[in-house]
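stage 2 :: seqdesign
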């Protein structure tokens, strides 16, 4: 069982930066893959990025080169550093976790078992 809490969202000007945090509880956090997804009204929840227990990462094409995911297992926290933000990045951002000791990255949201409450990111023009 893993509990996740996102923080760090807010309003930022286009071209600016934000860092989101996903704080987790659980005795075996290091064995979980963690992903970030985002959702806007009328759209499917879409994959943003993920990191496996082994440190393998994957990024959606739309954020590649601008977003960076990292994890600090000692603090049970995963970070999403976002830069060069665009208005189209506006969404509710969710972190999610799944038990998966693998170097393969899962991008399908339905395969993640634990979800945070989401944090709003709004990028102004």
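stage 2 :: out
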């Amino acid at each position: 069982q893993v509990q996740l809490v996102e923080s760090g969202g807010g309003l930022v000007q286009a071209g600016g930066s934000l860092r989101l945090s996903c704080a987790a509880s659980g005795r075996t956090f290091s064995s979980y893959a963690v992903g970030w997804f985002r959702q806007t009204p009328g759209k499917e929840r879409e994959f943003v990025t993920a990191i496996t227990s082994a440190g393998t990462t994957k990024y959606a094409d739309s954020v590649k080169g601008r977003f960076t995911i990292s994890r600090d297992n000692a603090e049970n926290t995963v970070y999403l550093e976002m830069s060069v933000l665009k208005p189209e990045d506006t969404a509710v951002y969710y972190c999610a976790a799944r038990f998966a000791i693998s170097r393969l990255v899962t991008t399908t949201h339905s395969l993640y078992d634990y979800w945070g409450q989401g944090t709003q990111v709004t990028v102004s023009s």
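stage 3 :: structure notes
- DSSP finds no helices and eleven strands in the chain.
- The mean pLDDT is 95.
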